[in-house]
Design brief:
This protein starts with 10 loop residues before the first helix and ends with a helix. It has helices at residues 11-22, 32-58, 65-78, 96-106, 124-141, 157-167, 187-192, 218-233, 258-264, 285-301, 317-328, and strands at residues 112-115, 146-149, 177-183, 240-245, 272-276, 306-309. It contains eleven helices and six strands. By secondary structure, the chain is an alpha/beta fold. The chain folds into three domains: 11-58, no CATH class; 65-154 and 318-328, Rossmann fold (3-Layer(aba) Sandwich); 157-313, 3-Layer(aba) Sandwich (Rossmann fold).
């Protein structure tokens, strides 16, 4: 199960997609009426044309890169296992009901569906909403099979290994600085997800202090992924850093901002940069347009000399094998 995309780059399709996405109470967690006025009256009318233009810059012959790659991933996984594999998007098409119906029609005796949300890290606006949506569709459809969700795999050795190997070819130059750019989320989401109600963002080193809160702390999990990947690659702390991208609105989001860092790093002497986006396993608008086009331009304009965008794992063989391991566990 992946995030999803509009059906086309037409403004009307992008607007429809953005409304479905942003009206999700786990994405914009304001009261319904406030969310409706904000999304339909303020954000979407202004954002849809710009987002449509951005999608146009990356749209391929097969349509949305994210949907096309997810379909290719389905086929790659299917070649390695005998159980039937379907895909679903949290927003847009194909939907969760379509996936359930296909599985059930082809396999009437099915007893269990294993759900793999393609989000390595826990966040209420990604992993949580995907799982809860899948449960809701399952309940409303009164399907006889049970569903089992694979937990976030941010620290799973198979994911770490696949992520590390996807990065390795891009850091062979000893002068290259590696930036881990994770999707940002509002700080209030971190606090809302804190199962202890007293740990997250309460101290400067909360992510390094052991706590049950880390099971649902997106920030901690991002830092954990970074640490495990850099340890596997043997990268020193001076040669990598972390930032957060794709902020929406005026609230406090996780920092530092990727966009701001692009302008700062050349002035700090970092002129050879490689950027990886580990919160995405499939290339999409946020990686192909935001990072590989816009932020590359920002970095080079600010004085950077070499910029390498590291593609997501997409359908790389080690990632496909990692998925087989995850669902096998």
């Amino acid at each position: 199960m992946n995030l999803g995309s509009p059906d086309s780059t037409q403004v009307r399709d992008v607007r429809k997609y953005l409304v479905e996405f942003l009206m999700d109470k786990r994405v914009i967690d304001s009261p319904y009426l406030v969310r409706t006025m904000l999304v339909k009256g303020v954000i979407t009318p202004f954002r849809a044309p710009k987002t449509a233009e951005a999608y146009g810059a990356i749209w391929g012959e097969e349509g949305s890169p994210l949907v096309a790659i997810t379909k290719q991933l389905q086929q790659a996984v299917q070649r390695q296992i005998s159980e039937p594999v379907e895909i679903a998007m949290r927003y847009g098409n194909p939907g969760m009901k379509t996936a359930y119906d296909k599985l059930y029609a082809a396999n009437p005796g099915i007893e269990e569906v294993i759900l793999l949300p393609l989000y390595p890290h826990y966040a209420m606006s990604s992993y949580e909403t995907a799982v809860e949506h899948a449960k809701t569709v399952h309940r409303k459809g009164k399907y006889p099979f049970r569903i089992t969700a694979i937990p976030p795999f941010y620290n799973h050795p198979a994911y770490i290994g696949a992520q590390a190997e996807s990065i390795r070819p891009y850091i062979e130059n000893n002068n290259t600085h590696l930036l881990f750019s994770y999707h940002s989320i509002p700080e209030r989401h971190i606090i809302k997800s804190d199962i202890t109600r007293s740990h997250c963002l309460q101290s400067a080193n909360c992510c390094e202090t052991p706590s049950p809160a880390h099971a649902r702390c997106y920030r901690h999990q991002c830092f954990a992924t970074t640490r495990l990947v850099t340890e596997r690659l043997g990268i020193s702390k001076d040669d990598y850093s972390v930032s957060f991208q794709s902020k929406l609105g005026r609230a406090e989001w996780l920092k530092p901002s990727t966009a701001l860092r692009m302008g700062q790093m050349p002035r700090e002497g970092i002129r050879d940069l490689a950027v990886v986006c580990p919160s995405f396993v499939s290339d999409c608008l946020e990686t192909l347009e935001e990072i590989a086009i816009r932020e590359k331009e920002n970095f080079l304009t600010a004085g950077g000399e070499r910029f390498n965008f590291i593609p997501c794992m997409n359908t790389q063989p080690q990632w496909v094998s990692a998925i087989v391991t995850l669902i096998g566990n």
